[in-house]
Amino acid sequence: MLTLGTLFAACTPGDSFSIKQNEKIVFLGNAFFENAIDKGEIETTISLCYPKKNITFRNIGWSGDNVYAHTRTRARGGGRFGDPDKGFGILTNQIIDLKPDKIFIAYGFNESFDDEGGIDSYGEGLNQLLEMLSQHCPELILISTIPMETGFGIPSEHIEAQNEKLKNYAEMTKDIAINRGHSYVDLFTPLSKESKYTANGIHLTANGYRKAGELIAQALSFPAPAIEIDSEKAAQIRNTIIKKNTLFFHRWRPRNDAFVYGERKDEQRIAQEEPAQIEPFIAKQEAAITLLLEDL
Amino acid sequence: MMMNSKRISGLFICISLLAQNVHAQNGLQDIPKPDLEKEMASFSVLDGFEINLFAATPMLAKPTQINFDSEGRLWVSGSHIYPQLNVNEEPSDQIVILEDTDNDGVADKSSIFYDKLIIPGGILPDNQGGAYVANGDKLIHLSDVDGDGKADQVDVLLTGFGTEDTHHTLHRLGWGPGGKMYMLQGYYISSHVETAYGPRHLNGGGLWTYDIDTRRLEIFTKGYINPWGHSINYWGQSFESDGAGTGFGHSFPNAVFRASPGETLALPSLTPERPKASGIEIISGKHFPASWRGDVITHDFRAHITDRYSLRENGSSYEATLEPTFLKSAHKSFRPVDVKMGPDGALYIADWYSPIIQHGEVDFRDERRDHQHGRIWRITAKGRPLVHKPDYKESSIPELLELLKAEENWVRLLAKQTLKTREASQVMSALDKWLGTLDPKNADYDHHRLEALWTVQTLNLIDIDLLKSVLQSKTAGARSAAVRVLYYWNEKVPDALDLLKVAVQDPDAVVRREAITALSQFRSIGAFDIALLAYNEDMDDSYAFALRQTCRILSKTWLPSVLNSNLTPQADDSALIFALKSTEDPRATQPLINLFKNSENPDSDILLVIGRLGNAEELNFLADIASTQSSPYTSKAANGLLTAARDRGIFPNENQTTVLQNLFASTSDDDQATACALAGHWNSKEYTDVLKQNLTKPNTSYVIKNSAAEALAMFGTEDIRDFLIQIISEDHPINTTRLAVNSLVQVDLEKGIEAIANTLSKEIDNSTIEYLIRRIVRKEGAFRALSEALEGKEIAAETASYASRYVQVSGREGAEELIAALAKAGAVEINSARPGSDQRTMDLISKLETGDAAKGKEIYHRAQLACISCHKLKGVGLSDIGPDLGSIGASAPVDYIIESLTEPSKKIKEGYKSSTITTGNGDFYNGSIIFEDANKITLKTSTGVEVSIQKNKIKSRETSDVSMMPAGLTDALNESELIDLFKYLTELGKSQ
Question: Concatenated DSSP letters for B807-869?
Fold first, then answer.
């Protein structure tokens, strides 16, 4: 059984959360999601709560990203380094390709370091992002920023000041979610109660992600999970999810990306073909995950 | 067809029309066996030194970095996976620890510490049984919790480093003397790393610093394409080696080197004439001869050479002198990539061991890439004793402090790293005592005290009194290093700005440069005022660059004050002008105008800055000057106006006519040429007659004619068209006709092409032929039109042949058709029966043994072949349009060299890929991008001409598959000459 915390995880103006058969869920954001790739926790939680739905997950989190998708240009053709303003178009095309049924969105950490006025730019960018995503996806779920944790050699006055900002960004995210009728999950408040969820003050550990999964499940009123999240079977499912995520990462953002998608793509015939060859292996892992879940 | 047979041979046009899609690699197996003895025998080492094998496969595989720990064990990161992980392949690259337990200079123990990595680029032991590893997009820490010698815990420290190119991903980790970790990334990498202090974004190459204790990540320098080495000298100054064309250079915070995206200025390296370097180490310690202390060791990995440079302080930076070759190998798989001084005082060289070193230019799956082997070589000085290995772990704190006096850089570094593991309060109190025992008369007194300061920094503590006292050292090196510490402690030091105010006025230029850079850490106008004190008229490159960067970084604080006239600078105007120019901020133009107005002897470069950045109203200031008769600044002001018009399409809204009147009345050809250009850009129709006269009037200088012709084309009216047609039909000097044709092509393509066809049938020289063809290479559909225009025309055979070469090089649509039309009009035979390319390459390789390199050298230098007009040899030559070929033979496989010449577009060197830009009016440019900003792109074309194109006029841009090297250059050679030439090229760089 999923232990539902006593902590309150706020949500959700929209219709109650439900998942239909064969849905595709996309995780979009900064390193909050990119770092989740090799933890697999949130995805495992959703899978265990909806084991028979044959959900496909795609994690397209990108470290350092903001609501304008500025990091997503890589070393791409045209200019040797893509114009950051083209990141949004690249993301748009990717969303159109993926055709998601739900997108979990986590931004705000990087923006919180901007000067005064940054928060307005965040709000504007988030609205623009949600506008675009709404055109290609029926359901969006916004995740709050998470608080910085003390320790790790980071000056405490810096953490306090930054947490004020992160809280403001969480508030802004919540307001925009409510205004636009999207679900909102507040991780900031419950994760502020204890300082034990991050690996470096800013990014969650595997346990931190498990807690985040629990809070998301609670906020969105998921059904109880089919098996315990810390069971051996769940670990097996999680490991398969991580393997699948890793393969998708190599498919999507391969080493030598510049030769596969970017500036130097004309130089390598074999390398260009290889990322596409990963796809059957992703499918194989997904079939294995489905099988493991169906057996529950 | 009537041909004189003697002439035919020179006129034959061999054209590869076979679109065979055969892969470039054709099973050549001129690969040496990985025989250790053979490689050993291939070395020649400088007299007085000897080389021995320290370790080889299977003890390690393909080393990417080597680093010793405090126990004297050598940690090796290696990659058999490089260059690319296979589909669905599990990570399996290793960290290996090598040990020489019996101290005989040969490793006798190898253990695998970790083996789940993908192309790790760097390894740095933590001296507590674990290590930091650069693993692609992540910096990780491996620890051995249960003490079995294998990593059992992986902590991810940083994520988000770019993955775009595996020979550029995060690499080469090292400790600095103040305890920070340094790490590198290369070009093509976009890193977006989230830290507790905000995201850090770095596009392109750069050197990072990371503070393990506070988790602060910062960019130290930006730039370089393949920065594959970083080392720090006795006084804490950094040096980076670059594997892509700049040798090695001197680095300091905020420095920018070439090819950093978005940067408009870069510092030169110290060795621009030595193109490739991987790995760098500074010689220290008693084992090597004393005269070598402080020298730089770096590898020319392409030429299988390890070089030594001596360094001399030069102004605020250094000067490097190449010393006699230290080590060279005749073995084509010897690839020295890293170099470290070892615990015994010997020099250790990591040998990647592969005949192939190109990352992108040779296929990732090429079978000739070696995935197994790797060697560590050790060089010792004959007859000189090795140095003692301290037992850091067993040493007491006072004993470790005594090690700070060691001559060996690594001993002092490891002593500080070990002190970091001890109780900090005990270290600090022992340090106090130790400082008291130091003898001020000792020659190294200042350095010992600097080591104490670095120890405090390594412990992440602050000792302001010690800092102040080291800032007052007699030795400039200690003062400059102390200023660097102040750069890091910045606002934690209460009177930091007072200290820096003294330091910017230090007699030593290095100290002043460090102080300028340290000021960039203080976000206050006070810091800016102090930085301006460092300004003077004779600043060297590094010094001026540091000041420019500080002015830019601080501009958020001081520029608004200048704009609100709140700033009362405590420096003379020239310093403030320097600061304003540094910003490259359009808001700085109005204050610059005011400064220019108020100065008796103004800096005329301000006028060019206004041209680059100013708005229409600000350009009126330039127009005002340019319309003033006998102003000494007329020319500069006019150039500023032209820059604004050409690059940004911005014009002054007053005084246009008086500017033109004044400039046309000038006696200077350049002013008149500028006037013509401005008349065109400003669309000043009343000047069309003047422009017409300037084009046709006898004895007008070429710059004026050229400018007049271009301006006429900008009007593009029917009247202009008819005028140009008339000029072409009349009997003018060929230069005038050429310019008129060029303009006509812009105004009316069809008529222009007709004019080209007519001109080709006249008796014209080669440069005119080339000129005419190049006019239409830029135009869509023009080749086909010229083919039709040539129908029924007769042209000279030489003209047909010469024109065809340029048509072919273009690779443009319709080229084949045009070549056929030229051949027909010129009655030249076309031989398209060139053998299949792979077969031909194989043939040539099989005959290479018979080649004569000396003859080949003569052929290489023939003017007709034009090799020397684009390529340099080891920095010597006329032009750098193409890559330096100084060590091509040592670096590239034979088939690569041959195909580069016979089919240039098949092999395009990294950085020499050309871009194709089409503008709104159909102009077409091909060349490599050498500069790009928000407004314009500058291309260097294959003729070496630089062309600037306004971005808002660009319709499309793409990276071209066509090499800038003309195809068919070697077609005039017979086979034996060709083989001689290849023989010569394949020998280049193999011996010195």
Answer: HHHHT-TTHHHHHHHHHHHHT--EE--PPPHHHHHHHHHHTGGG--HHHHHHHHT-GGG-HHH
Within 8 A of B203 by CB-CB distance, chain A residues are 75, 81
A257 — contact with chain B (CB < 8 Å)?
A: yes
Q: Is the Cβ pair B364, A270 closer than 8 Å? A: yes
Contact (CB<8Å) A264/B163: no
Predicted complex ipTM = 0.95
Residue B771 belongs to a domain = yes
Model confidence at B973, pLDDT cuts 50, 70, 90, reads confident
- Joined tokens for residue B21: 């899609």
- Contact assignment for B199 to A110 by CB distance below 8 Å: yes
Q: Cα–Cα distance between B180 and B309 in angstroms, integer?
A: 26
| Among B904, B907, B896, CA closest to B965 | B904
The reply to whether B571 and B632 lie within a common domain is no
A293 found inside a domain: no
Residue type (1 letter), A283 = A
B160 near A CB under 8 A: yes
Number of compact structural domains in chain A: 1
Q: Are residues B771 and B872 in the same domain?
A: no
Q: Tell me, what's the pLDDT at A128?
A: 97
Task: Note which residues in 880-939 of chain B have CB less than 8 A from chain A.
Answer: 908, 910, 913, 929, 932
User: Of the candidates B123, B93, B112, B102, which has an alpha carbon nearest to the alpha carbon of residue B54?
Assistant: B102
In a domain, A5, yes or no: no
- What does the pLDDT look like over B912-947, one tens digit per residue? 666 777 776 666 676 776 666 666 777 766 555 677
Nearest CA of chain A to the CA of B171: how many Å? 14
Evaluate whether residue A250 is within a structural domain: no
Range of the domain at B320: 36-381
Cβ atoms A81, B203 nearer than 8 A: yes
B570 and B681 assigned to the same domain = no
Residue of A34, A251, A268, A272 to mutate when probing chain B, most B C-beta within 10 A? A268
Q: What is the pTM of this model?
A: 0.83
Q: How far apart are CA A40 and CA B656, in angstroms?
A: 68
Q: How far is CA B644 from the centre of its chain?
A: 29
User: In degrees to the nearest 10, what's the CA dihedral of B283, B135, B181, B209?
Assistant: 110
Give the pLDDT of residue B870: 72
Task: Residue window 15-54, chain B: list those with CB within 8 Å of chain A.
Answer: 23
Same domain, yes or no: B838 and B807: no
Give the per-residue pLDDT at B7. 37
B805 and B839 housed in the same domain: no
**Residue among B199, B204, B957 whose CB faces A81 most closely:** B204
Does the residue B491 lie in any domain? yes
User: Do B118 and B151 belong together in one domain?
Assistant: yes
- Paired sense of beta strands B305-314 and B317-322, if any: antiparallel
> Which residue among B191, B365, B910 sits closest to A270, beta carbon to beta carbon?
B365
Residues 749-808 of B with CB under 8 A from A: none
Same structural domain, B842 and B958? yes
| Cβ distance of A256 and B958 shorter than 8 Å | no
Whether A11 is in a domain gets the answer no
Give the residue from A114, A145, A203, A259 with the most B CB atoms within 10 Å of its CB, the best one to mutate. Answer: A259
Lowest mean pLDDT among B13-27, B488-502, B650-664: B13-27
Q: How far is B89 from chain A (nearest CA, A)?
A: 9
Tell me the C-alpha distance between B256 and B234, whole Å.
Answer: 23
Same domain? B500 vs B637: no
Is the CB of B88 less than 8 angstroms away from the CB of A281?
yes
Is the CB of residue B862 less than 8 Å away from at least one CB of chain A? no
Residue matched to tokens 């991580």: A242
Q: Is residue B589 part of a domain?
A: no
- Among chain B residues, the shortest Cα distance to A63 is held by B160
Q: Where are the alpha helices (DSSP H) in A183-231?
A: 188-192, 206-219
